[in-house]
TrEMBL record:
This is Flagellar hook-basal body complex protein FliE. GO terms for biological process: bacterial-type flagellum-dependent cell motility. The keyword DNA damage does not apply. One of its GO terms (cellular component) is bacterial-type flagellum basal body. Residues 19-41 are annotated as: Disordered. InterPro entries: FliE. GO terms for molecular function: cytoskeletal motor activity; structural molecule activity. The keyword Glycoprotein does not apply. Its main location: other.
Length: 108
């Protein structure tokens, strides 16, 4: 079995930590305003929007690097963030498909 630390980049970990902190901050603010928890569909929508934003930022950084406006380290970090975002998105998609197939196999 492979080492789990080789599967996750430090940029992905930092991004996940920042996202969890922002979710906790939003949750605390929402709890004072409203007692309804965040729905699953809103959570999925938010995660997909964050993934799209990461991809767009990475593309912009890569283009800036090609124009000579960004240094190599920034481009590499952006590409690593994009790569980890794609890996997570594919993993989540596979889990959704797996769950859907399991539901289809359930007897009625």
């Amino acid at each position: 079995m492979s080492d789990p630390t080789s599967l996750v980049s430090s940029a992905a970990v930092r991004g996940a930590y920042r996202t969890s902190q922002s979710i906790m901050g939003e949750k605390g603010a929402a709890a004072t305003e409203e007692s309804n928890p965040t729905s699953f569909s809103n959570m999925v929508r938010s995660a997909s929007e964050n993934a799209i934003d990461t991809m767009r930022a990475g593309e912009q950084t890569a283009q800036a690097g090609l124009r000579g406006e960004a240094d190599t380290q920034q481009v590499v970090e952006a590409m690593m963030a994009m790569e980890s975002t794609v890996k997570v998105a594919v993993s989540v998609r596979d889990r959704f498909v797996e769950a859907y197939q399991e539901i289809l196999r359930m007897p009625i």
